[in-house]
Specification:
single chain, 194 residues, alpha/beta, Maf protein, 7-stranded mixed β-sheet, 5 helices, 25% strand
């Protein structure tokens, strides 16, 4: 099995990546140094690809310094709400911590246009090259929090491909994977590796 170190502090993302890569012969592990996720400086930029590239370059340097032999994966994603000019976008994780789901719904009170999209950019470093995969999932922001599955904004996002108008928070991992921006980005990576 090929060892794949995923630089993330998000347990949900780690589980999704493990379920995706394990059947393809990858042993996915959280990238840790001395038992801790290495600190990376996240650039303040409006472009997911730029942010992901910055993180993977830092991760590759950590890997080099640690002497470990493995591929490294970084994934960055964001929720881009049309009516809010793409907010929270690349700042989705920090905005979620500050406002929570109810805060986002409060900002959108009275808005009829609720279209949004999740975007993901995954980058894999195989010690020779950077391979990029990107994915998008269009949908709408619901008017209430629904479901306890998934993580992040899942309970307020309903993918447009889903006919029942369920949120990601109301879907199991397999169902969500059929629409997921993250899975689309990872599939794009795998297609390039093949």
């Amino acid at each position: 099995m090929t060892r794949l170190l995923f630089l993330t502090g998000n347990a949900g993302k780690l589980v999704e990546a493990t379920q995706f890569f394990a059947p393809l012969g990858y042993q996915v592990e959280q990238f840790l140094i001395d038992g801790e996720v290495p600190a990376v400086i996240e650039p303040q930029a409006d472009d997911l690809r730029f942010v992901a590239l910055s993180k993977i370059e830092q991760a590759a340097a950590y890997l080099d310094a640690s002497g470990q032999k493995a591929a490294v994966l970084v994934e960055d994603a964001g929720l881009f709400i049309d009516e809010l000019n793409g907010f929270p976008g690349v700042y989705s994780a920090s905005i979620l911590k500050q406002l929570g789901l109810s805060g986002i719904l409060k900002i959108m009170t009275g808005m009829n246009e609720r279209s949004a999209e999740f975007r993901a950019c995954a980058v894999l470093w195989d010690s020779e090259q950077f391979i990029f995969g990107e994915g998008v999932c269009r949908g709408t922001i619901t008017e209430e929090i629904r479901g306890a599955e998934g993580f992040g904004y899942d309970p307020i996002f309903s993918p447009e491909e889903e006919n029942t108008e369920r949120t990601f928070g109301e879907m199991n991992r397999t169902e969500k994977g059929g629409y997921s921006h993250r899975e689309k980005a990872l599939k794009s990576l795998i297609n390039q590796l093949d």
